[in-house]
Design goal:
Helices cover 25% and strands 27% of the residues. It has eight helices and 16 strands. Strands 5-2-1-6-7-8-9 form a seven-stranded mixed β-sheet. Strands 10, 11, 12, 13, 14, 15 and 16 form a seven-stranded antiparallel β-sheet that branches.
Length: 315
């Protein structure tokens, strides 16, 4: 049996759960690599990454390189004496880093590779209306999410699943898959297989302001899936035009009203308790939203203090 000395690389809460699981199962983690502290919040105070906070709480050595190709960082990484690197929700690694350990560097990716390679696999699986997704471990190579796969596990996506609930399911599933992968590497019986690309691949690009905007000319299920796939973060948004002004409204929760729309896409039906937006084949009923400069609130509460002009319309 191999004596593993693990270096863990990751940044957000998703990665923390995996690292915590490795520690709880008594694997020898000799160091952690995470992102630099970044200013955040209204006060723009420096915030430590979630992985750094957890690593510090259990006494692990933490490295926060600005440049992964920096010779001083690579020298410090070598000094940790790791022989296996595990990457979860981190940056693309240069070859000088991923080829360093004796037993390789593997990544946990939150999709069933080769589908949904990229930065936001959880979000895009829901946005695209998938009914299943999963987690994959694979050995890193010089491209993004293309390396030889080790293990995969599948999970269903429920009709009302959000990115937040799916994130938590995959986080737990992923922790178990990482443990299985580490055990195989420790036993020396790991078998990796190349990714096959025989069918059309769906990407998972980084989320931007442009691809988070709702398009009401699409079908009701496409719009509804877009809301689910971006909730609770970063949240889909819709642009309301009224009185010559544009107002971006975040949509955290919505529902389908399977009715024949009266107006064109983007027009509204508003009562004291309901706020519905017409789409191609139905209405999107707003449940929870956020107006500019306000807190998240129920849509019917927002209507109490928000006046819609006669010409108001979502674009």
């Amino acid at each position: 049996m191999r004596n593993l000395r693990i270096i863990f690389m990751g940044t957000p809460a998703f990665a923390v759960h995996i690292l915590k699981t490795l520690i709880e199962y008594n694997y020898h983690v000799v160091g952690v690599v995470t992102a630099p502290d970044k200013p955040a919040g209204r006060g723009m105070k420096l915030q430590e990454p979630a992985v750094k906070q957890y690593a510090a709480s259990v006494g692990l050595k933490v490295l926060q390189p600005l440049n992964l190709k920096d010779e001083n960082f690579i020298a410090e990484l070598k000094s940790l004496g790791g022989n296996l690197q595990i990457v979860v929700a981190f940056r693309m690694l240069p070859k000088a880093v991923w080829q360093l350990p004796e037993y390789g560097t593997f990544n946990l990716h939150a999709s069933l590779l080769p589908q949904y390679r990229g930065a936001a696999p959880i979000n895009w699986a829901i946005i695209n209306g998938e009914t299943a997704t999963g987690v994959t471990t694979f050995f890193i190579d010089d491209k993004i999410d293309t390396g030889a796969m080790i293990l995969q596990r599948e999970v269903s996506i429920m009709p009302d699943e959000t990115a937040g609930t799916l994130h938590d399911k995959l986080m737990v599933l992923g922790a178990g898959l990482v443990l299985e992968t580490v055990e195989q590497i420790q036993q020396g019986n790991v078998v990796a297989r190349p990714q096959t690309e025989s069918r059309e691949l769906k990407p998972a690009p980084k989320l931007t302001k442009e691809n988070c905007k709702l398009n009401f000319s699409k079908s009701i299920h496409e719009v509804y899936n877009h809301v689910r796939g971006l909730s609770p973060y970063p949240a889909a948004y819709a642009t309301l035009q009224q009185s010559g002004k544009e107002i971006d409204i975040k949509v955290f929760e919505a529902d389908i009203a399977a009715e024949t729309p009266v107006g064109k896409p983007g027009s509204m039906v508003v009562t004291k308790t309901e706020w519905k937006i017409a789409v191609a084949n139905g209405y999107l009923k707003l449940i929870e939203i956020q107006l500019p400069g306000k807190k998240r609130m129920k849509a019917k509460e927002a209507l109490n203090g928000f006046t819609l002009s006669a010409d108001a319309m979502f674009t």
